[in-house]
């Protein structure tokens, strides 16, 4: 079964990407099963990317009915009411995604994400959750971790001009091409709960402020029982209060979480920016492809992007400080002009 | 409290977007992503140009296209697909039908038109996981042609003809020499035969070898060619012992060695299978070889070689003499793969699969959807800044495969215009030339067109017009310019000698530059084959390491109407490295076609950006009327 060759049709369709990641990776992709939950702009971008890449199957989960807000960054659904009325967003996206690549099985899963048991998640190789509460993220992550099989877990969310990806690959081995030989490398990941519980003061210097701001907002939504993103500048004073408390717990100076950034994220609310969705959905797609194929160094364990400064940063949030990532081939000549 | 700031900012953004007009050049890999992201971001008026039609190998990333669209115009299909989810915006497609053979020239052309029109250009490119977005705004940032570009890698002629050490050398030999010799224009100069030091191989005799004799059947002919290029020529090269003192000696390969006794029966099989089937255009198919990823043995390569040659001569005889290598021509790819592998066997170089050989021979760009999506997002972010004239926040952004300073997306400040750029500043160029030997035609062809990339040049010496191109010239002018072309520079009506300053202008591009002429008697034929040297000029942009491809999008704002052209090309199209496919060139300027797959660093271009032909000619007319 593992030696199964790609068909002529697959070779022709995937020609350009096989030249990037090789036949073995393509074969592994075509046998992988991916679950996504919470379909907004970023997830739509992600789904497009992995369906095009040729995963074996994609299961989409989101029982919400279509609203205008959900359509704002979604290119899978025509904004025609008689097309979308009465159907869930997952149903509509599924129909459209099937069309992108006939070789990928796309299906819909209904039900409450929290009600799915461990075995359910065992059917997948990759689980991506978005637009859900902190406790749901933690719960799904834990269920994935309880399986004997390694299931890659991701969370992703965009707010206005910012976006964040979290990655948990548990104990992950990948091969890295060095000169002419390939070396096996091992990475150890924390769960989402473990990662966000690390005291802020013990995090590396130069930590992205965006990381902290997102933790404050996430906590606020959780405490208040708000739908993710359902938060606005009207909540600013209360969010500031929470920031103060959290900073005390973590022994961190409040100035590490600047008002301006906090305001900007609150003002954005749940609204997504299409360019940011494209960027975050693209990076996430790439990471999932890496994880499935076992080729290339996956990011560990947060990725943060802010369109205001244009930086897309990898942040390693783990107790044991990993050694600095070496400067790879990607290093750029004109670095002196870094903003 | 001042938290209204961000809300205000986004309202301003929105109104800038609402009043914009954008031109995209290219509806390929980045183009599809960009069109989608622009539409979702609320851009109301988008114009898109692409001359390409859809191919199967586009479908893995150009997500607006489906199998059923293969063969149709990219620009038009992309428009229809986006209108399905954003029916209320205007998208105007242009399927331009003039194919510019040189992608580089097209890109430079767009740069010049944008400079001339004062329209900002957002340009981008991707290859594999690498990508880049750059903003070019006249007078504020560097233009596309400001930076000296690394010259494309070239191979010494003798490496290709006599001492290959890498598989790519064998591919170049098979494609540019052997394939061209057998199926292309026979009169074209070709270094196929081994240069032996003693000069014993009379080229006259060698030429005849490639002619098929009367009464010679195809099998015999194929075997004779095989023995000549893989056997006899190698023996001849071996006789030059100096060459092999520090190298491994190649092994001559003859048909009889490869097939030994079974040849007869093999041939029988071949004939049978190819006769039974409808005319097969694939040697692989008639030999029962299925997987393009497989490595063929020397024997299999030899069979493919002979079978492909036979198919060319039996099924495609009419094309012989006019063929040039095309990566989409299955039979041509099979022939080149087999020939390259046989040569590689001879020289002890590892063999490669057809899939790999095709990538090398066809300069095929590595492309994935995710990088294009990321780059398209970055383009739109820059485009919005440009619309808001938010100059201090313009950034050039790299998308990296491996993080650098923890960054996968790395913004840098844009570069200032290069003060000595002949395109966006008015710095004169220097031309060393023998003014007593070189004709005006040489200057027009080798300098003005080839190096400066002008399409409709006008050349002046002081106020004397020496040369001009255009539709609206009088007959006597045309005759006069034609006569000037054939004149030696120093004998022109207004003589051009050392110290002369020529003015060269392209009205369409609104580009004007001065050339200081310096007389020089002698040029080295090998090193300076043009017989003239232009300085102050930069190489057309070639892809650089770590994926600094120039690519494609352009935003433009004009003060009055807020036109914002974004132009894009696709990964394939994005690249900027000159490609050598198709056109026959001298080996000496063959650009590197190496693909370092692992690093995916090399970029090349295959496609051509389509220009607005109509608009261009309008522009030149207007200028003339003034």
Automatic annotation (TrEMBL), chain A:
The organism of origin for this protein: Forsythia ovata
Entry's localization field: Nucleus
Protein name according to UniProt: Ubiquitin-like 1-activating enzyme E1A
PANTHER family the record matches: SUMO-ACTIVATING ENZYME SUBUNIT 1, UBIQUITIN-ACTIVATING ENZYME E1
Protein family: Belongs to the ubiquitin-activating E1 family.
Keyword Nucleus: yes
Gene Ontology CC annotations of this record: nucleus
Stored Gene3D superfamilies: NAD(P)-binding Rossmann-like Domain
Pathway assignment: Protein modification; protein sumoylation
Record-level Gene Ontology MF annotations: SUMO activating enzyme activity
Organism phylogeny: Eukaryota, Viridiplantae, Streptophyta, Embryophyta, Tracheophyta
The entry's keywords: Acetylation, Ligase, Nucleus, Ubl conjugation pathway
Quaternary structure note: Heterodimer of SAE1A or SAE1B and SAE2. The complex binds SUMO proteins via SAE2.
UniProt domain THIF-type NAD/FAD binding fold: residue ranges: 14-314
From TrEMBL, chain B:
A GO cellular component annotation in the UniProt record: SUMO activating enzyme complex
Residue intervals of the Ubiquitin/SUMO-activating enzyme ubiquitin-like domain: 431-523
Pathways per UniProt: Protein modification; protein sumoylation
Taxonomic superkingdom: Eukaryota
Domain named Ubiquitin-activating enzyme SCCH: residues: 305-358
Keyword terms: ATP-binding, Metal-binding, Nucleotide-binding, Ubl conjugation pathway, Zinc
Region (Disordered): 190-210, 537-626
InterPro entries, alphabetized: ThiF/MoeB/HesA, ThiF_NAD_FAD-bd, UAE_UbL_dom, Ub-E1_IAD_1, Ub_act_enz_dom_a_sf, Uba2, UBA_E1_SCCH, Ubiquitin-activating_enz
Name recorded for this polypeptide: SUMO-activating enzyme subunit
């Amino acid at each position: 079964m593992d030696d199964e060759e790609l068909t002529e049709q697959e070779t022709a369709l995937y020609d350009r990407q096989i030249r990037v990641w090789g036949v073995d990776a393509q074969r592994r992709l075509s046998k992988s099963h991916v679950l996504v939950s919470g379909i907004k702009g970023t997830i739509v971008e992600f789904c497009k990317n992995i369906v095009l890449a040729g995963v074996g199957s994609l299961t989409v989960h989101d029982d919400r009915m279509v609203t205008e807000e959900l359509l704002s960054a979604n290119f899978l659904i025509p904004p025609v009411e008689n097309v979308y009325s009465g159907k869930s967003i997952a149903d509509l996206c599924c129909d459209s995604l099937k069309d992108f690549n006939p070789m990928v099985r796309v299906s819909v899963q209904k039900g409450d994400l929290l009600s799915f048991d461990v075995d359910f998640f065992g059917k997948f190789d990759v689980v991506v959750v978005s637009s859900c509460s902190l406790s749901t993220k933690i719960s799904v992550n834990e269920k994935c971790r309880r399986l004997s099989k390694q299931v890659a877990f991701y969370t992703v969310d965009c707010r206005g001009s910012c976006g964040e990806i979290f990655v948990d690959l548990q104990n992950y081995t990948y091969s890295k091409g060095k000169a002419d030989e390939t070396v096996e490398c091992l990475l150890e990941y924390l769960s989402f709960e473990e990662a966000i519980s690390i005291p802020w003061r013990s995090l590396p210097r130069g930590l992205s402020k965006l990381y902290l701001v997102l933790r404050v907002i996430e906590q606020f939504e959780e405490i208040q029982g708000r739908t993710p993103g359902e938060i606005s500048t009207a909540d600013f004073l209360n969010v500031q209060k929470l920031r103060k408390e959290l900073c005390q717990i973590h022994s961190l100076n409040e100035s590490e979480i600047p008002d301006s950034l906090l305001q900007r994220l609150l003002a954005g609310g749940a609204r997504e920016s299409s360019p940011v969705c494209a960027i975050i959905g693209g990076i996430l797609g790439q990471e999932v492809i890496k994880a499935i194929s076992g080729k290339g160094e996956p990011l560990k364990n947060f990725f943060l992007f802010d369109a205001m400064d244009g930086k897309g940063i990898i942040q390693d949030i783990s107790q044991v400080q990993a050694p600095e990532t070496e400067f790879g081939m990607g290093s750029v000549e004109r670095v002196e002009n870094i903003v | 409290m001042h938290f209204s700031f961000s809300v205000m900012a986004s309202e301003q953004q929105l109104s800038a977007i609402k009043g914009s007009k954008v031109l995209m050049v290219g509806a390929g890999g980045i183009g599809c992503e960009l069109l989608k992201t622009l539409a979702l971001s609320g851009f109301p008026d988008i114009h898109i140009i692409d001359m390409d039609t859809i191919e199967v190998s586009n479908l893995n990333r150009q997500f607006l296209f489906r199998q059923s669209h293969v063969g149709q115009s990219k620009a038009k299909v992309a428009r229809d697909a986006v209108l399905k989810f954003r029916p209320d915006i205007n998208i105007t497609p242009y399927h331009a039908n003039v194919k510019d053979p040189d992608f580089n020239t097209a890109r430079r052309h767009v740069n010049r038109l944008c400079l001339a029109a004062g329209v900002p250009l957002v340009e981008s490119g991707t290859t594999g996981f690498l990508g880049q977005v750059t903003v070019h705004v006249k007078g504020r940032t560097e233009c596309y042609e400001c930076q000296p570009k690394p010259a494309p890698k070239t191979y010494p002629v003798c490496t290709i003809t006599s001492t290959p050490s890498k598989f790519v050398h064998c591919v170049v030999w098979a494609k540019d020499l052997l394939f061209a010799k057998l199926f292309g224009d026979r009169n074209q100069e070709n270094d196929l035969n081994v240069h032996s030091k003693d000069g014993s191989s009379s080229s006259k005799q060698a030429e005849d070898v490639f002619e098929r004799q009367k009464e010679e059947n195809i099998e015999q002919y194929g075997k004779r060619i095989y023995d000549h290029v893989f056997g006899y020529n190698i023996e001849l090269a071996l006789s030059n012992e100096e060459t092999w003192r520090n190298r491994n000696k190649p092994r001559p390969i003859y048909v009889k060695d490869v097939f030994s006794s079974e040849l007869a029966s093999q041939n029988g099989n071949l004939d049978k299978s190819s006769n039974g089937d409808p005319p097969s255009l694939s040697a692989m198919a008639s030999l029962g070889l299925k997987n393009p990823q497989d490595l063929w043995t020397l024997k299999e390569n030899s069979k493919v070689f002979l079978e492909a040659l036979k198919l060319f001569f039996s099924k495609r005889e009419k094309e012989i003499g006019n063929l040039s290598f095309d990566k989409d021509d299955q039979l041509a790819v099979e022939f080149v793969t087999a020939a390259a592998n046989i040569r590689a066997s001879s020289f002890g170089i590892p063999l490669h699969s057809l899939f790999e050989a095709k990538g090398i021979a066809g300069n095929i760009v590595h492309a994935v959807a995710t990088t294009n999506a990321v780059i398209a997002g970055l383009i739109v972010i820059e485009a919005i800044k440009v619309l808001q004239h938010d100059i201090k926040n313009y950034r050039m952004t790299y998308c990296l495969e491996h993080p650098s300073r923890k960054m996968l997306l790395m913004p840098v400040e844009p570069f200032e215009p290069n003060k000595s750029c002949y395109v966006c500043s008015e710095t004169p160029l220097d031309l060393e030339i023998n003014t007593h030997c070189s004709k005006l035609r040489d200057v027009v062809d080798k300098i003005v067109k080839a190096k400066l990339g002008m399409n409709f040049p006008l050349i002046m010496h002081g106020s004397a017009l020496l040369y001009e191109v255009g539709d609206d010239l009088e007959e006597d002018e045309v005759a006069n310019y034609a006569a000037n072309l054939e004149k030696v520079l120093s004998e022109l009506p207004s003589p051009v000698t050392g110290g002369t300053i020529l003015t060269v202008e392209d009205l369409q591009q609104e580009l004007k530059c001065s050339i200081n002429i310096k007389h020089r008697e002698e040029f080295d034929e090998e090193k300076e084959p043009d017989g003239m040297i232009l300085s102050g000029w930069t190489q057309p942009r070639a892809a650089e390491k770590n994926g600094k491809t120039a690519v494609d999008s352009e935003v433009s704002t004009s003060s009055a109407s807020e036109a914002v052209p974004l132009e894009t090309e696709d990964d394939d199209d994005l690249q900027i490295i000159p490609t050598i496919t198709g056109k026959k060139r001298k080996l000496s300027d063959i650009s590197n076609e190496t693909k370092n797959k692992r690093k995916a660093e090399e970029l090349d271009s295959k496609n051509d950006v389509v220009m607005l032909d109509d608009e261009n000619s309008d522009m030149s007319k207007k200028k003339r009327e003034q």
